[in-house]
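Following up on my earlier thread - several people asked me to post the actual chain instead of describing it. Fair enough. Here it is, all 296 residues.
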Amino acid sequence: MFNWITYAFASVSSLATKDILQKKIAKKNGVYSILSVQNFFSLIISLIIALFLGISLTLDREGLIFCLIALLQSIGSIGKANAIDVNMSATSIVNSFSPIFPIILAFIFLNEFVYFNPRSLEGLIRIFTLILLPIVILLLKSNKLGRKGKTNAFWIINILLQLVFHGLTTFLNKYYLDFNNIWKNIVYTRIVTFIVSSLFMLMKKEKWERTPKFLGKGFLNGSLIIFSASTHRTAVVLSPLSIYQTFRKPLLIIFSTLAGMQIFKEGKKLNKKQIAGFILGLISLLFIIFTSLQLK
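Reply from S.P.:
Thanks for posting it. Predicted structure:
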């Protein structure tokens, strides 16, 4: 079996690619139309895989819990989309600190503070990486800190919805997931997210483009969603949530920035603060990889 770090890399690379493609498509077709079409294809793909694997999809107590978790995730995603409409830069910065809430929940309810024992070398290194996390994020996001933009009560409410509900989703998935129900969780998540995104698409008076190009991009993004979802959930099952979140967020920011600049030609050269963030981020990732070798 692969180490959880392998799954984390696979999840982050596919998620970052999907997000960049989604942003480009949304500029032409609308946010909720592309969300709806990619959620449709991701649902179909997940159903095919689950049936092929012989997964029971009975709507039992576990299925209802997964539906509730997916609904919380959808509410958080709606909050994020509304916050982006008000101020994209501020939302991007605040969203970068989203791991903090699930880490706190993991410390309180999963007793994961034991992995940060200052009396051991591994514990000290993990404490260092945890302290380094906000510094790395601020440095990597330094190109957005100086941008002007309005924030208001509507923005605050929606960014809190995103932080709280996505944080709860991350924690609850860790609490309820195991290797036997990963695909059941994915299927129910895709059902709920497809329904919610389609309802908002209709409310916003958007619609699918019935063109091979639009549907093809929806299928590609849907495939990336399923690959990212399966590898992400596997990594969550295999690793302590607090360590995984400390590893995943800087990795996602680094990969998204590099992919956007090199592959999709977004943005210009990195500034000095971003370069420092990359260096510290890579040091933090290497430390986490080192200490993860001690985990069983």
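The chain has twelve helices and no strands. That should answer part of your original question.
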